[in-house]
Design brief:
The structure holds two protein chains of two kinds. Helices cover about 80% and strands about 0% of the residues of chain A. Chain A is mainly alpha-helical. Chain B is mainly alpha-helical. Classes of the chains: A mainly alpha, B mainly alpha.
């Protein structure tokens, strides 16, 4: 029941929203119910360690860490959207009703991927996330949005096709090494039987390569990231936040699960090195590409690529510090990146553009939005006292404690590049004289509220990680390092 | 009954050749309709393959999957694609970015490559070498069709060919994944084609053509 409720509410909600005229109010109501159900599930998992329903649904501490962050992000996006959507042009798919219906379906598919205990089911719902969000990416029906939507759909579907191939290869390896066919896709039984899999070493390696390429496309590892900046830049701002803060984590979660199996089956050498490779390349290339960006949301999108690289580096390092940092970073990055995309939404609403070179003197025109940008910017580059400092520092000390100096150097160079790029672009936008008068200077109360909440969360997690969350993360690490 | 068994084993053995033929047909196709027919034929071979496995292993689940393949991939999706071509009033040529001769040559090379690629795994897995090679060839040529064709509709077909390859690989190595997973994958496939159809309409409406290779606004 506790597992079914959060899955049922968004599906029914999507249907209900389509039939009501007052879409925003209905969506807020359904969303509140969903957030309550999600919190209940997270809490139940926290209390009992793991919750299962039937053969196919299961939540453990690892799931709960990601559920907590999904719940927070969804709540923020929902409230922000209610203020943001008032200026939408009424067209066929571009209506407020469709927006909320698709948002609920998107949430459902992500949630279902988290709760699937079966890896085949996980793939099905992961593909579902692409399908549910493609229309949201192409929501504005401009040339750019249609192109980004098509690219997103095709690139991610092809990428995930490789992940399906990897899933099948792993299933094959499990069946050939004596795991019963019915449970050969079940994560818990695979984890238990993982040492057996070492007989099929080559096949497990082949499977992991396809899985990291497949799910890595969705995570946005360089060089598989081509869809990511387009989709983030062309989608409506609340959806950009949802993509960056929720969807990327969802794909990373799949990789975490597979990495744990691979480590237990064939040792940490293979999968961890691959993750470090993809992570390092993503951090460096994304850091460099951030310097040359001309669109604010593309800049933030590349920053997401960089942070996914950081998380992959943490997982690849492994050990208590690396893994702890990586798990904590998924949450911290989500909150900080939401602030930035929400602020970018305000910039677009008031100035009508996101081109960095066309904006200057923002502190005078839009003091509040500028403040939010500065806050988000400081947080995202990992300045203390914000939360990202803690998680990035944990990963870095993990690298040093294992004497992985090359990893540490790449990590630090990437962070410095990103810091320089953000500083450069922000100084240009915020400082100087205003070029022309803004179209408007409005900031909705809801927008104020969500950014305030993010700031408080970032500060609290930066000063002291709450004991409950700490326990959850430690539980998740225990799940992965059985 | 003996005849049916014989037919089943023959279907398994000769499938690879037929699949290679459809792959080459797709590579050489100049018209949209040829490509759609080639895809339908390819799926029909796959369906025969599933039914043969079902017959040999006597599993009811495989019969259901076989029926689904016929219903969705042999009839449903090709029909929908023909309707889409009609409704979009798209020009009928496929817009290949290189000449069909080169395209066929490259595809032949890919087939050769897939034989070498599967060589190491064949003994370990105890499966027929040419069918596994056919599966890999489908995957590779699907990816090749994707990059060599500019038309949105052709990219949909490329994706379907790629998926056919993965389906075949799963079928011959594991004799099919668990039922619920197969059905979920089918559902995703149908929804994916539906969405791509919607996007094809949108691309035509916003750009007034269907040539995705000309979508170049977003860069860097």
């Amino acid at each position: 029941m506790v597992l079914l409720l959060p899955l049922l509410i968004p599906v029914l909600g999507a249907a209900i929203v389509l039939f009501f005229r007052r879409a925003t109010r209905t969506a807020l109501l359904i969303g509140t119910a969903e957030i309550a159900a999600l919190s209940w599930l997270t809490f139940a998992t926290y209390r009992h360690g793991s919750v299962a329903f039937g053969h196919y649904l299961r939540a453990d501490h690892l799931t709960a860490v990601f559920l907590a962050s999904l719940c927070v992000i969804f709540a923020l996006v929902l409230v922000y959207s209610s203020g943001y959507l008032r200026h939408l042009p009424p067209e066929r798919f571009s209506s407020v009703r469709w927006f909320y219906a698709l948002l609920f379906l998107f949430l459902f598919t992500m949630l279902a991927s988290y709760l699937s205990s079966n890896l085949g089911l996980l793939w099905i719902f992961m593909e579902g996330t692409t399908l549910a969000s493609a229309l949201l990416v192409g929501f504005y029906e401009t040339e750019g949005a249609v192109e980004a939507g098509w690219k997103y759909l095709v690139v991610c579907t092809v990428g995930l096709a490789f992940a399906l191939f990897g899933t099948i290869a792993l299933y094959l390896a499990a069946v050939k090494s004596g795991v019963a066919g019915g449970s050969a896709l079940d994560w818990t039984s695979l984890m238990a039987a993982a040492p057996q899999l070492s007989v099929m070493k080559n096949l497990v390696k082949l499977a992991f390569v396809f899985l990291i390429v497949g799910y890595g496309t969705k995570v946005g590892f360089v060089p598989l990231h081509s869809w990511l900046p387009d989709a983030h830049a062309e989608a409506p701002s609340p959806i950009s936040a949802m993509l960056s803060a929720a969807l990327l984590n969802c794909a990373m979660y799949a990789l975490l699960r597979y990495d744990a199996i691979a480590v237990r089956a064939i040792g940490p050498g293979f999968s961890h090195h691959l993750l470090l490779l993809f992570g390092g390349v993503s951090i460096l290339i994304a850091g460099l590409l951030m310097i040359v960006q001309r669109d604010l949301k593309r800049l933030f999108a590349y920053s997401s690529v960089e942070h996914m690289g950081i998380i992959a580096t943490g997982i690849g390092l492994g050990g208590p510090l690396g893994l702890y940092g990586a798990l904590l970073h998924t949450f911290n990055h989500s909150v900080a990146k939401s602030v930035l995309f929400f602020a970018a939404g305000n910039v677009r609403e008031n100035l009508g553009t996101l081109r960095i070179d066309r904006i200057s003197g923002m502190t005078r025109m839009l003091p509040f939005t500028s403040g939010a940008l500065i806050l988000g910017g400081l947080a995202i580059v990992g300045m203390p006292p914000f939360a990202l400092f803690v998680s990035e520092f944990a990963i870095l000390s993990g690298a040093f404690s294992q004497a992985r100096h090359l990893v540490a150097v790449i990590f630090l160079v990437g962070l410095t590049l990103a810091f320089g790029a953000l500083l450069f672009h922000f100084l240009h936008m915020l400082g100087g004289e205003p070029k022309d008068t803004p179209e408007s200077r409005k900031v909705a109360g809801t927008e104020l509220a969500v950014i305030g909440v993010c700031a408080v969360v970032l500060l609290i997690f930066g000063v002291h990680v709450p004991a409950q969350f700490q326990k959850l993360v430690e539980g998740a690490m225990a799940v992965l390092q059985q | 009954m003996v005849l049916v068994d014989l037919a089943a084993s023959k279907a398994l053995g000769s499938a690879a050749v037929l699949l290679f033929l459809t792959v080459l047909m797709l590579a050489a196709a100049k018209r949209m309709s040829t490509s759609i027919v080639a895809f339908a034929l390819q799926s029909a071979v796959l369906a025969a393959q599933v039914l043969a496995v079902a017959r040999i292993h006597g599993s009811t689940e495989s019969y259901v999957i076989g029926a689904l393949v016929i219903l969705i991939k042999v009839l449903g999706i090709p029909y929908a694609l023909f309707r889409l071509v009609d409704k979009l009033q798209a020009p009928h040529d496929v817009k290949l970015s290189l000449s069909p001769v080169y395209s066929v040559f490259i595809t032949a090379g890919l087939i050769f490559l897939s034989f070498t690629a599967v060589h190491t795994y064949v003994q370990e897995l105890r499966v027929s070498e040419d069918v596994l090679a056919a599966a890999v060839a489908l995957i590779l040529s699907g990816a090749f069709l994707m990059v060599s064709h500019g038309k949105a509709l052709m990219q949909i077909i490329a994706l379907l060919v790629l998926e056919n390859g993965i389906f075949l690989a799963a079928l011959i190595t594991t004799f099919g994944m668990p039922m619920i997973i197969e059905i979920g994958v089918f559902f995703d496939l149908v929804m994916g084609v539906l969405l791509m159809g919607i996007f094809a309409f949108r691309i035509r409406d916003t750009f007034e053509h269907l040539d995705v290779s000309k979508l170049r606004r977003l860069r860097g």
